[in-house]
Amino acid sequence: MAASKFFHSDEIIGLQSDYKTGGLGAILSQIRNKCSHLDEVQVNIAVAGEAGSGKSTFINAIRNLQSNAQGAAPTGHCETTTEPTMYPYPHLPNVQLWDLPAVNSCGLGMKRYLELVKFESYEFFIIVAQARFRENDAELAKKVQEQGKLCFYVRCKIDNDLHSLAMEGAEFTEDEEMKTIRMDCVANFQYTNIKIPPIFLISNFKLNKYDFPELRTNLVRHVPMIRSQGFTLALPEITREIMGQKIRSMVNRIWLLAVLAGAVGAVPRPGLLFVTSIGLVVAGLVYLQREVGLDYGSLYRAISSFREEPMSIWKTVKKLCLLSKLSPVLLATAVGCTVAMKERGFPPVTISLLGAAVSSWFTVTVLTDAVRQHVGAAQRAVKSMFDKDSFYLL
Question: What residues does the IRG-type G domain cover (predicted)?
Answer without folding.
Answer: 41-222
